[in-house]
């Protein structure tokens, strides 16, 4: 790993001290590790998110690591290459987001809850006899994939492959891999894309009440076989939707359980008072936001927080820092599920606000209800402390070893 990536990984493992220093420094702070200006205060974060015309999302998913030539050659055999909804602006963003909004309405989320409840019970039931478990691998990375997979319209047997492909895509673009591993990761990504493409073509012939059909209908209106261009765009959006629906929820499940168990008195509170679970969800999302932020790029010269930014300047809009802003939250570094409700930015704000936040929160609610009822004695394994994943896109424990 080169020095830049090593410095970035160290920064990502615990960004909160860096955030604090930036909030205490006048103007914006340029962070070499991110190669961007850090937008750290809640007021400034909201200002950027209110100005999508001045702060474009075109660089939102800029990779930390550019794959090598051989891996890129493998990727060229797949589907994709189109700008995702989180990295688009204006009319293009509205067009790409429309099927997501229609597929994740309150009614659609409500209709998914019986299945989610069933999966929570099944996954937890499989864990109980062991007396110990690694909850990221055995629970938090499985439930969200199953739920978003069902909403998409995937067969249950195909969900593990597409979830694994999503993780491989993230590793390929945001983790240092040797050339051979890059090629293997690219092959897994391409396999996932071909699987998603096969679903899109099947839904073209036989539409159903699912998100894949909604996406095909919205992005390729009409009849007849999909063109290669349409297949590329649809596969890109389905891949992004799958990743967004899975990663954020998985991270939120992991960090919420981690902080409740680290602050044992808080866990005991929701065991004794389940009515506090909604407040615990909001506090966990605020305290350690699963999506720490996204990049933006200026489309013209702008003044932000007293700092003059030229056109083409990259900024990192830090939701995680805004949620710890001392001017917006009292005692922001304290994890307290009994605090008065706080208007946080864990799911973004404005036109790019997360459309799936209700689905994520419902899965977390079902999880906390089931775990506190059936595993009130749940504890972190003192012999295997949790470590965080070095990622700003979905901050979560890499592993979460527990005993009961």
UniProtKB/TrEMBL annotation:
Does Metal-binding count among this protein's keywords?
yes
Question: What are the record keywords, sorted?
Answer: Heme, Iron, Metal-binding, Monooxygenase, Oxidoreductase
Pfam entry (one): p450
The record's listing under SUPFAM superfamilies reads: Cytochrome P450
Q: In which family does this protein belong, per the annotation?
A: Belongs to the cytochrome P450 family.
This one is known as Cytochrome P450
